[in-house]
Design a protein that fits this description.
3 strands; single chain; globular
Length: 71
């Protein structure tokens, strides 16, 4: 059965840059919640840039949070 057939309307996927790229390459996302902390990482895999419409943009303590929807 597909998710639609099971009446599942949304799923949440957590992961890093690799996982995000896989979903973006298959156009399997319509909304992303991007949380950016204040600590700068100096190594690792750079996150891809999401192209979309920013619906929310705010700070929560030291974190910057954006809710982005596909165009």
């Amino acid at each position: 059965k597909t998710l639609f057939e099971m009446e599942i309307q949304s799923i949440m996927v957590e992961g890093g840059a690799f996982t995000l790229r896989q979903f973006m390459a298959q156009n399997l996302w319509d909304e992303a919640l991007v949380i950016t902390g204040s600590t700068k990482l100096r190594s690792g895999i750079k996150s891809p840039l999401l192209e979309g419409e920013i619906k929310e943009d705010f700070k929560l303590k030291t974190d910057h949070i954006q809710r982005i929807f596909t165009l």
